[in-house]
Amino acid sequence: MFGQKKFQPYRYIKATARVVRVHRQTSDTFLSAVGYAVTSLALLGMLFLASPLIVTESILLLQKLNRQLTSLAFMPSSDELHFPVNKPMPTQDPATLPFSISIPKLELEAKVIANVDASDQSIYSQALKEGVAHGLGSAFPGQGKLVYIFGHSTDYVWNVSTYNALFYQIKDLEAGDSIKLSLGTKTYTYIVVAKHIVAPTDISLIEQNQDNDLLVLQTCYPPGTDWQRLLIVAEPVK
Predict the structure, then answer these.
(1) E-strand spans in the chain?
(2) Of 60-64, 119-123, 214-218, which one has max mean pLDDT?
């Protein structure tokens, strides 16, 4: 009909779109507000739950600082400090320890009498009735110097079996044979390296090796005489 407005669908669509946008904006605003509220409540809840821990940690930190300050307040000055002196542990006199010798090849075991004066017959004769003698002034095993031990072969040939002739058989020792010295709770092993026969007055081998880590066994030779001296030289097993 003339003069009647024609229906325009695009205007309806545009109006509908505006309504949808308004509703969407309103919905987004509402959801954002709800999200902020939920987040705030969650943070408040976490803070509420964590607050006892925070308080506890704060108290512990304050207590630690207080202890440190207290220790500093009572710390002595350099003039008042006293440090203990490290005194060396007392060492036991080796002469008081049990001392013995064993020679596996000869099946020999004997007590060693410590610090016997080899120049005084009355002293060493008494010692040799009990065992063999460690020379006065020579080292003890483990001290890194010459250990000198002497003993009877025998006084007379017919007394070999009855006299305390503990060193009668050392003439049979050869290079490579072992000798063991026990001092206290420790055992020291030596290996024979040499054998010498010298005059009774010849002590050069002993004098020249006083600072060397060696073992020297001495006895009269030939057995049943005192014509010469038999010396067995041994080195420690490292």
Answers:
(1) 99-103, 108-116, 132-135, 147-150, 178-183, 186-198, 215-221, 228-236
(2) 214-218
